[in-house]
Amino acid sequence: MTEANSKSGSFGRIAFWVILVVVGLAIVLTGKPLGEEGLAFHPMAQFEITPLFGDGDISWYTPTNVTKWMGLSVLALVGLLVIGTRGRAIVPSRMQSVGELMYGFIYKMVEDIAGKDGVKYFPYIMTLFSFILFSNVLGLLPMSYTPTTHIAVTAVLAMLVFTFVTVLGFVKNGASFLGLFWVSSAPMVLRPVLAIIELISYFVRPVSHSIRLAGNIMAGHAVVKVFAAFAAVTIMSPLSIAAITAVYGLELLVAFIQAYVFTILTCVYLKDALHPNH
Amino acid sequence: MSVDTKSVADAAEAYEKGPGMPQLDISTFPNQIFWLLVTLGVMYFVLARIALPRISSVLAERQGTITSDIAAAEELKLKAAAAESAYNQALADARAEAQAIVARTRDEIQVDLDAAIAVADAEIAAKAAESEKAIAEIRDGAVDAVKVVAKDTAKAVVASMGFEADAKTLTAAVSARLKG
């Protein structure tokens, strides 16, 4: 038993280091070289999309830095939730208990908010959470690219949720799903007004859902870059580095909180679709 | 001042490049959306097929292990309680038996003792009767001897006075005296 454990443990350690080396090499080899730069503000340059190989046009299938960092998110996910849990231990290893923590966190969220019948959609919600969390956290590496800073990405995520939830609502409840907009606890006079407000707020959901995520992450990254530009000026650099450190700590929090907020809102929308009459 | 001129040049270059926000560059949208959908697909596959079932089974197994361990502990506790009550029962039985043995032994000893006392009483009674008989014989013998001695003494006293006493008178006189 213990021999098998130590064997799989050493395998895991080797796999972990191999992944780390591959990731490091991928970052270094495909990244842009550090140039000599003076005081230059390029806070938006980090969000540019460039092809990984060559300098050609970007068509829909060109491998770009988007591909690279999304691929690294997948690798990180595999590392944590597949390689980390390969021991299937009753008493978990450190990696396994982090994976179980993540699983339990989202599972409990879905169960608490969307109810028992929402648990069926747990893998979809876990996919969303994993993607956003790993994108945000990997995006905090220096010289990285963060897919979730782009409205194109977050809008697709939000529209996926919106479409899924709306279709599910009508499939599960039929026309009574429209009861979501008809507030039966309000006085009869107010109900049409409230219905209009509810309808507008329903269609604004994907907008706020996507812009909240992209806006938060983008703003944080831009702020770090602005402070970083000041670090080139000798007299400003201590203040600048202190500010970067502080903002970086905040960004670490924001990276998690935005993934959490996106996921919990998805759960709330799912609950509305499953139980429109509260 | 070289820093300033350089930054100005950079800013001018960046301005010529086009809009400041790469987020609004629609030409990159198909690329991002395509890779996003690919990534989500791969992540969903990894999670739904491998990671989530595995973690779920690990958690269920752990829950099962904990439950069965608690049940086993409960069972062992019951066994311990049963063993303790059996021990107490055995102790009580042994104590009761010991008391019974003590009582029986005491009764047996009492019976023996009673028999021995009865035998001893009988022996004592026999001895006492025998002794009384011997004492009576001795007393009777003593009275006769006293008569003979008294007769002899009286005869000697009478003779020393110079008279001859006949035996009949002497005997009567001694008898009268002894009675009186």
Task: Write structural notes for this entry.
- The complex is a heterodimer of chains A (278) and B (180).
- Chain A has 278 residues and is mainly alpha-helical.
- Helices cover 67% and strands 0% of the residues of chain A.
- Chain A has helices spanning 2-30, 65-83, 94-114, 122-138, 151-173, 191-230, 237-274.
- In chain A, helix 6 runs antiparallel to helix 7 (237-274).
- By secondary structure, chain B is mainly α.
- Chain B contains three helices and no strands.
- Chain B has helices at residues 2-17, 29-160, 167-179.
- In chain B, helix 2 (29-160) packs antiparallel against helix 3.
- Classes of the chains: A mainly alpha (278), B mainly alpha (180).
In short, what is this structure?
The complex is a heterodimer of chains A (278) and B (180). Chain A is mostly helical.
In terms of topology, how is this protein built?
The complex is a heterodimer of chains A (278) and B (180).
Chain A: H1 2-30, H2 65-83, H3 94-114, H4 122-138, H5 151-173, H6 191-230, H7 237-274
Chain B: H1 2-17, H2 29-160, H3 167-179
Helix pairs in contact in B: 2-3
